[in-house]
Amino acid sequence: MMNRICLVGRLTRDPELRRTNTEVAVCSFTLAVDDRVKDAQGNKTTTFIGVTVFNNQADNCAKFLRKGSLAGVDGRIRQRTFERRDGTKASVIEIVADYVTFLDPASKNREIPNEEIVYDEVRGETPADESKNLDSIEVTDDDLPF
Question: Which of the listed CATH numbers 3.40.30.10, 2.40.50.140, 1.10.150.290, 2.60.40.2550 matches domain 5-110?
């Protein structure tokens, strides 16, 4: 038996991060996935799918994903049942993500909070600015692998 699913979509709201009693990080969000086929009126249809992520990946999702972020999810489908406060039973189908890929260019460039940036006062640039000027790199024949 196989239970795998891969989805690409956009978050409908900011992810929610919480912790279990044993301090395991749990992040949940809803992914809007467009269907390839259109309805009878020619409009595209969208499916909204709940996603749950655990541990370190949950922390990273909470840090780097926001409402509207494009994300790829690889995981498995899980159905769980629970009892509502009014005593009725309910069932929900969701995705338990094994891997979440941040596909938005904005999420790749987002700074990690509390990251210290070193500023070179003499040259007036940060180390990230240095990597933009690749003309200044000197390479000798001994450095080449061929």
Answer: 2.40.50.140
